[in-house]
Amino acid sequence: MSNQLINARKKINSVPTLLKKGKYMPAVQAIHDGLILYLKNPVMKGEREEFENILVKATQSLNSDADLRKLYPLVISYTPGEERALLDAMRDLLQELQKVLNDEVKDDMQAILVRKKEALDKGQQFLDSEDWDQAKGTFDALVKEFGGDTDLKADIADRYLNAGRYQEAFHMLDDALQDDPNAIHLYNRIGMVLRKMKDYDTAEKYYLKALSLTDQDEYLHYNLGRLYFDWRKWKKMAQSAQNAVAINPKFTEAAKMLKFAQKKVAE
């Protein structure tokens, strides 16, 4: 028996074990792949009879699996000598199982979105009522559940920021940056938070880090200019505004900032 036929036999014989573990896609895939190997290789009479027997057992295992029958109620028939028809049936079954899997993934994703929204709304209610400890507990639990979701952390940070809870916003954004160190929008948000906290030196470092990743974002230059306005560093403010206008000459607010900064420098 060739190595390919040995591999085919191994695949098909694995079906009952895979089904017991609830691995329906791998089980059907094993029959599918085993059949392809079987059909592309010449077999002797004894080998053919052996494969016919294990295919009968494999299809019986599929048909007798109650959970699989719920997903695919059609009976899978196999007659020795009609392996190509069985291969077509396995292809159809794989497609049906993939549809079920896709639907389950969609359902899971929808459930996750609902879970996040409910928790965010609950946390927002605590913020609105200035119940800071309850808000923090709700948001921290949500982040623990969905730890790698940087967008979620940014959303929570924005809520803290709007509520004037700058320290909490900073820590949430800093945590998000650990997940995605090259997320420019996070550096920008942190710069805004630190500016409101009047930690101008640290805010500048975050803005400059963002600009080291991309220097063609006029809004980054403009926001850095706003930092320099609060910091009363007029020359740096003028340069930031100039950079923003150079990128986008129609940026009206940046043009106004530039004019103001130039006036301050000239005083």
Please, what is the CATH homologous superfamily of the largest domain? Tetratricopeptide repeat domain
Shape: elongated
How far is the N terminus from the C terminus?
Answer: 94 Å
Strand content: under 5%
Rounded to an integer in angstroms, the radius of gyration calculated over CA atoms is 31 Å
**Total of DSSP H or I helical runs spanning 4+ residues:** 14
Q: Which percent bin holds the helix content? A: over 70%
Query: Looking at CATH, which topology of the largest domain would you report?
Result: Serine Threonine Protein Phosphatase 5, Tetratricopeptide repeat
Number of beta strands: 0
Q: What string, H for helix and E for strand, traces the elements in order?
A: HHHHHHHHHHHHHH
- In the CATH hierarchy, the architecture of the largest domain is Alpha Horseshoe
Largest sheet: none
